[in-house]
Design brief:
Layout: E1 9-15, H1 16-27, E2 31-34, H2 41-52, E3 59-62, H3 66-77, E4 84-87, H4 89-94, H5 96-104, E5 110-115, H6 129-133, E6 140-143, H7 147-162, E7 170-175, E8 183-189, H8 191-198, H9 222-254, H10 279-292
Parallel strand pairs: 2-3, 4-5, 5-7, 6-7
Antiparallel strand pairs: 1-8
Helix pairs in contact: 1-2, 1-7, 3-5, 7-9
Amino acid sequence: NGKWRGGNRWRQSLVGNNAAANALRQIGVEVFPSFPITPSTEISEYFSKYIAEGKILSNLILVESEHSAMSAAIGSVLSNARTATATSSNGLAYMWEMLHIASSMRAPIIMELVCRSISGPLNIHNDYSDAMGMKDTGWIMLFSKNNQDVYDNTIIGTMIAENSNVLLPIAICQDGFITSHSIENIEILEDDEITKLVGKYNNKVNLLDKENPVTVGPLDLPTHLFEHKRLQVEALANAKKVFKEISEKYEKISGRKINMIDTYMVEDADTVIIAIGSTAETIEEVVDRRRKNGEKV
């Protein structure tokens, strides 16, 4: 794994789960509440290995359920610690109540969501029934078509979530086994480049600051609830603007342009397929073949 394409980039062969864990290490996650579930379990395993090797000073908290993992993440990130977790499938479903609380409390948690079918019947492989179940909970969601996307989305996603005009939790989605357990060659930036780019997490709300006490999660009567939900909607809209600004900054150091929506040969197309996740790369291959046959797809 030598230097590749300039002084600040390395080429490494990583599975998608390790691409996620490596990015979480580089951005300096301070607290990682964890409860294992296939196929996301490897992320916390890789992250715990980085802690054991002294590559990051962080706290991996083993809890008794996914509901507790998200509860711990909310408390942690509102105590001014950069916080991440990982889950899949029924584990995400078990978090459902706390997903709403995380977004309503404007808690910028980073969640690595390795998408998997929700039972039943029992199936540990990829679909988006878990991700689609959370799409109306007020979280930002970025979908990754390959392992490079997982790495890049984790870094820029953290910056979007923590932006003062956004302050919302974010899910970095990838495909169970298809990317999570498959090795791909990806470009990794130097640690100090990411540290400088992402910066230190500094939430103005800190539950542990006795000199500046705050109330979190109070009773919200209908009038104020409406106002707070409206602010969440505006924050999601702000995330689109912030996405563009951050992706441009990231492009300058990585050489990779991260678009909100990737397009492929759509300018003259008669037929367009819209997809999320790794299916997109398969579609590009199909488009290439159909184009050779003269079809405008």
